[in-house]
Specification:
Largest sheet: 2 strands, antiparallel
Radius of gyration: 71 Å
CATH topology of the domain at 164-220: Membrane-bound Lytic Murein Transglycosylase D, Chain A
Strand content: 5-15%
Strand order of the largest sheet: 1-2
CATH superfamily of the domain at 164-220: LysM domain
Oligomer: single chain
Order of helices and strands: HEHHEEHHE
Number of helices: 5
Structural class: alpha+beta
Helix content: 25-40%
Distance between the termini: 231 Å
CATH architecture of the domain at 164-220: Roll
Shape: rod-shaped
Length: about 240
């Protein structure tokens, strides 16, 4: 049996060429389909990078800012502290007796200490005795600081014998000393003084009683002749003759 002749190279080449064209056609068709699909996606905006004129514009929300009311805060203003210069009130220093209205709980000692006054002078100025009986609301005279009792005026030399004078007791006075000073006697001073004290409703005094500053004594003057003070005589002792 005779063998079939082998195909010629030309036929083989033609067959391969036809196969290659078919493959290329299929591949080209696939590319065309793929390209159409991409174009469709791109046109509908479902593909990233789609132009804005094909895609449906999605409205962008606008942020509306609501202003928050701000409560103003008071800023503390520093006010400088003004230091006031103290006003110096001059201290009142009386140079003469002045009036004072007696207050509650006042007495002569308290008043004298308050105004740095001499109690004896205060009693003298207000015709008060040592009991210093004063009442609330009463106006009295207060001596100036350092003011002293006035110097006793000496009695006139021609004063009538037995004339009774008023005398205010001062510091250091005694009945004996006053009797000598006014040429009187202790008995006569007590008699006249107690007669006056009884008329005033006051207790009588005795020669042994203490005298208080400001007490009133009734002294009859020039009852006795003053005893002259003896003058000391210097005795000269002669020198022995040599």
């Amino acid at each position: 049996m005779a063998k079939k002749k082998s195909q010629s190279p030309l036929a083989s080449y033609r067959r391969k060429k036809k196969s290659g064209k078919a493959f290329i056609g299929i591949l080209a068709g696939l590319f065309i389909v793929a390209g159409l699909a991409l174009i469709a996606l791109w046109a509908t905006g479902n593909l990233a990078g789609t132009p804005g004129w094909f895609a449906t514009k999605t409205p962008t929300p606008t942020l509306t800012l609501t202003p928050t009311p701000v409560t103003p805060t008071n800023t503390a203003t520093h006010t400088p502290t003004i230091t006031e210069t103290p006003t110096i009130t001059p201290t009142f220093t009386p140079s003469a007796p002045f009036e004072y209205v007696v207050q509650e709980d006042d007495n002569c000692a308290v008043i004298a200490e308050k105004f740095d006054a001499d109690v004896e002078v205060m009693l003298y100025l207000n015709n008060l005795d040592s009991a210093c009986i004063i009442n609330v609301g009463q106006t009295i005279l207060i001596p100036a600081p350092g003011q002293e009792l006035p110097t006793a005026t000496p009695l006139p030399t021609d004063i009538r014998r037995g004339t009774v004078i008023d005398y205010k007791v001062r510091s250091g006075d005694t009945l004996e000393a006053l009797a000598i000073r006014f040429n009187s006697t202790v008995d006569k001073i007590l008699y006249e003084t107690n007669r006056w004290r009884r008329s005033q409703g006051l207790t009588e005094i005795k020669d042994s009683s203490n005298l208080y500053i400001g007490d009133i004594l009734k002294i009859p003057v020039n009852l006795v002749t003053p005893v002259p003070t003896a003058t000391a005589t210097r005795t000269m002792t002669p020198s022995p003759t040599p």
